[in-house]
Putative atp synthase subunit s mitochondrial (Panstrongylus megistus), 193 residues
Amino acid sequence: MLITSNYLRRSLPGTRTFYAALVSIFNRVSNSRIEAVGPDRACAEWLMRNGAFIRWQGQPNFLSHYDNLPLDENDKAPYYIEEVDATDASISHHGFPHFSGCNYITKMKFHNCWYFDDRCIFQLNLIANSLCQLEITNCGEVTDAGLASLKDLRRLNDLRLGDLKQVKNLTGCVTAIQQALPECSVYILPSTK
């Protein structure tokens, strides 16, 4: 059984401080690993280690487990992450530098991510040249400041937001984003609760 940080969070209730330390460890960036296998594979490993799914460019299905990664770790060139689904994932800002060098990610979904916060959003600029579609829902640590920084994602053309409890002025944030990114369609999704 592959033990992920998400599994540990659910298995160890009432140990938030302990778990926060584990989140930091599971999200740690290994520059030597990036050098060894390339940015996309290292990023895919990080995402899956924390409960996210990835889809390679040109492939129809999402991968969720290390066993589904290409077997030859030296085979860097043909595998590029195109889509990330981080539903219920335990990713945090500590791991977002993994996105550096991932130049083909066009679509991302962050849903019900406990540790996804403004610091994560600020680092989405690492993939600003490719990111077109973004969904952020039920991520309770996101604030108005985080949403305001989305205006820097110039290629963004589809943004979906919902259940963001720390956002005080969602309408104002959406208006500012639409003014900065007139080509971007912004959708406020209904509550999932």
